[in-house]
Amino acid sequence: MDAKLMAKLLRQGLADRQIDLSHSECLELVARQFGVANWNILSARIEAEDKEPAPLPAGWFLSGKSPAFYHAGLDPDRPGTVLIMHRDELAGQIRGDDFCTVMQSADATSFRGKRLRLSGDLRTDEVSTGATLWFRVDGPKGTIQFDNLEFRTQDGPLKGNCDWTERSVVFDIPAEATSLHYGFYLKGLGKVWSRRFALDTVDAATPVSANRGGILPGPTNLDFRQPPTN
After folding, report:
1. What is the per-residue pLDDT for 211?
2. Stronger pLDDT, 45 or 65, i.e. the higher one
3. Distance (Å, rounded) from C-alpha 107 to C-alpha 198?
4. CB 78 within 8 A of CB 46
5. pLDDT at residue 140 above 50?
6. How far apart are CA 120 and CA 134, in angstroms?
């Protein structure tokens, strides 16, 4: 990030020794010191680094299968927005099932017996596999309810380039619930932004999510005749 200052100091130091090089020539020398072919390449890398997200907001943390492959944090250009993006230098190592999530965990005690709606807006840029929000309810013996929208035929994960789109999951929180876990994630390559996350109590008129992640409501398509949905 101090490459331009390094070039300036290099030029001054050489001038003190009666060696006259232009600023652009010194920029090229600094680029070589960083192991790249020319200043244009180094400048592009500096610009990319400068646009990396800031740290995560308080109360949120990073998890997932392969968080080391991603950057995540507040987007300095969009107040109130969190960004997950793959690391360009590791793009060749990232597979379709690699993912990184920004998440939060909360005590379920005060929500028992209530119907909760998790919602948030997502925006994507060149997402290869998918980007989605997710919600999980745990009890003493493990997961009670879970949905990441991946098995939905409508209003499921976002892919490619999408403008701000709301996604939501609705669960009845049972008496045995001990903790709530929720967030959003990027799977594969690309970028996803999230904003306006909310966990609200809703009334009985709001339908609960029928999907529980990978758990179907009953035996389905056992003869394999139903074609793929996408």
Report:
1. 54
2. 65
3. 16
4. no
5. yes
6. 10
